[in-house]
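pasting for the record
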Amino acid sequence: MFARFKNGQTTKYNSSLSEFVRNADSSRKKKVYSRVIDRAVESQNSVVKQAELLQTR
């Protein structure tokens, strides 16, 4: 996996995410990361609640 980097070969594909991580200022990154984390927590809480409902049946 890392042999590609040792040989100096890198991928030429740039995703929107990689562009954002490289180019966005720190305050913008903080806003986006906070939003992503909040949504992930909401999603995880929803899964836990669904599992609890299934166990009580």
